[in-house]
Write a structure and sequence with these properties.
257 residues; seven-stranded parallel β-sheet; binds nicotinamide-adenine-dinucleotide
């Protein structure tokens, strides 16, 4: 999967799946903008890529703020001449049912997880179009397909990402811009580890969650990153509007065991 000469943006690229995807995209040859609300994390991942001989830029960006997103796109154009690839990965997770969640928490989650994709795509698509096309991958989740108790806002946001992916795929197919989303099961990232720690011994909880996946373990971020790189690459040239489940078999079963 050769991305030489391409320019990629990864939001939430400072940690977890975003970090792995930024490293993998750069490894495939793309000049990579690592955008994260955590400036230190973004700069550290960019430095790691440069240390491995790749080309990268770390930027502080809150994807829910149009001014930040505008600065991000301008920096990509200034440094690398344009944008070809966008991985809309940044998201937050907040537990709670509808009656438990306070309004600001609901609004913040949708501002990052859904509006963030709208803002980043809105600014990047015209730039992709001017270069003859591009590819976008949106981070959904199996929580957008089936869910658990007390994940109301996150599950709703990931359902929205799946629908938004279909809409964007239709709207920009004739511009040569492919849009797909991924629906991972549990992945070993800071987000998942924080959730596990809230329920007790993090390692034991992660092992228990892993055992629920038919493959018998949770995923490593690099396993998800390889799917992102594939969907960004010309190897996926006929794939658009698709939702890729990558969950170790979790949603294949009615009941585990
Ligand atoms: N980890 C999982 O099990 C899992 C499963 C399914 C889907 N996902 C999805 O994959 C994506 C990455 O998840 P992860 O587990 O790596 O998360 P993570 O929390 O470990 O990392 C997310 C990164 O995004 C950054 N971020 C948060 N808010 C931001 C904002 N407003 N603007 C810019 N950056 C921001 C964080 O600073 C962090 O570096 C998310 O969309 C998540 O919903 C994760």
């Amino acid at each position: 999967m050769d991305l030489a000469g391409k320019v990629a943006i990864v939001t939430g690229g400072g940690a977890g799946i975003g970090r792995a995807a930024a490293i993998a995209l750069a490894g495939a040859g793309a000049a990579t903008v690592v955008a994260d609300i955590d400036q230190q994390a973004a700069e550290a991942v960019a430095a790691e890529i440069v240390g491995q001989g790749g080309s990268a830029l770390g930027l502080v960006v809150d994807v829910s703020r149009s001014v930040d997103v505008g600065t991000m796109a301008a920096a990509a154009v200034d440094s690398y001449g344009g944008i070809d690839l966008l991985y809309n990965n940044a998201a937050i997770q907040t537990y709670g049912s509808v009656t438990e969640l306070e309004e600001p928490a609901w609004d913040r989650l949708f501002a990052v997880n859904v509006k963030g994709i709208y803002l980043c795509s809105r600014i990047c698509i015209p730039l992709m179009r001017s270069r003859g096309g591009g590819a976008i991958v949106n981070a959904a989740s199996i929580q957008g397909l089936a869910t658990q108790k007390r994940v109301a806002a996150y599950a709703a946001s990931k359902g929205a990402v799946i629908s938004l992916t279909r809409s964007m795929a239709l709207d920009y197919a004739s511009d040569g811009i492919r849009v797909n989303c991924i629906c991972p099961g549990s992945v070993d990232t800071p987000m998942l580890r924080k959730n596990a720690a809230a329920q007790g011994d993090a390692e034991a909880v992660l092992a228990m969650w892993g055992s629920v996946h038919p493959i018998g373990r949770i995923a490593q971020p690099a396993e998800i990153a390889r799917l992102v790189v594939f969907l960004m690459s010309d190897d996926a040239s006929f794939i658009t509007g698709a939702s890729y489940v990558i969950d170790g078999g979790l949603t294949a079963a009615f009941v585990q065991g």
